[in-house]
């Protein structure tokens, strides 16, 4: 799933840059702007941001404050990491439920220029939260396994899911 997300972000970002560059050329060189470029730019940026947020969570790159946790013993760090992951997972479940509601609500609305359902944009929220829930569940599972086997490292919460899964 991670490779798919990475390729999707790269492809969507390439599309975003191409559309913006094309719009600049069309507007300032040919004096004929595209009527649909702003919608594609906004929708593509939304998808890139949400998929990128899921990838950032997977690699442990979201902002965290570890001042107090880093001063705890290894078991305390692992327990704090489990608590943090549990809270994140609970929030993501709530966000996924609301995201589905939002997506269903927007399915009957169409965009102005492209005439596509706005649920296409809202679906990015569902994809992001689903990916984040899977990554967080993998993080919890890796921490529980580490606690159970006695292999508790230093700052368990500061490593990426990929590093914890090995």
List strands and helices in order, with pairings.
Layout: H1 2-28, H2 37-58, H3 74-106, H4 119-149, H5 161-165
Helix pairs in contact: 1-2, 2-4, 3-4
List keywords for this structure.
166 residues, mainly alpha, 71% helix, 0% strand
Q: How would you describe the overall organization of this protein?
A:
It is built from 5 helices and no strands. It is mainly α and 166 residues long. The protein has one domain. Helix 1 packs antiparallel against helix 2 and helix 2 packs parallel to helix 4 (119-149). The chain is elongated and about 65 Å long. 19% of the residues are buried. The model is unreliable at 154-159 (pLDDT under 50).
Instruction: Summarize the helix and strand pattern as letters.
Output: HHHHH
Number of helices: 5
Please indicate the count of domains.
Answer: 1
Strand content: under 5%
Structural class, by secondary structure, is: mainly alpha
CA-atom Rg in angstroms? 20 Å
Question: What are the low-pLDDT stretches, counting only 5+ consecutive residues below 50?
Answer: 154-159
Shape: elongated
N/C terminus separation = 17 Å
Could you tell me the mean pLDDT?
87
Assembly type: single chain
| Major sheet details | none
The portion of residues assigned to helices is: over 70%
Total number of beta strands: 0
């Amino acid at each position: 799933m991670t490779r798919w997300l990475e390729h999707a972000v790269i492809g969507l970002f390439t599309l975003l840059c191409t559309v913006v560059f094309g719009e600049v050329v069309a507007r300032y060189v040919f004096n004929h702007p595209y009527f649909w470029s702003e919608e594609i730019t906004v929708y593509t940026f939304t998808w890139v941001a949400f998929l990128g947020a899921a990838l950032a969570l997977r690699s442990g790159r979201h902002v965290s404050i570890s001042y107090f946790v880093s001063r705890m013993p290894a078991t305390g760090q692992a327990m704090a990491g489990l608590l943090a992951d549990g809270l994140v997972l609970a929030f993501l479940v709530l966000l996924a439920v609301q995201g589905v509601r939002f997506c269903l609500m927007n399915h009957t609305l169409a965009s102005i220029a492209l005439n596509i359902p706005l649920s296409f944009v809202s679906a990015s929220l569902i994809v992001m939260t689903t990916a984040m829930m899977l990554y967080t569940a993998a993080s919890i599972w890796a921490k529980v396994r580490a606690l159970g086997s006695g292999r508790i490292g230093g700052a368990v919460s500061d490593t990426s899911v990929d590093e914890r899964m090995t």
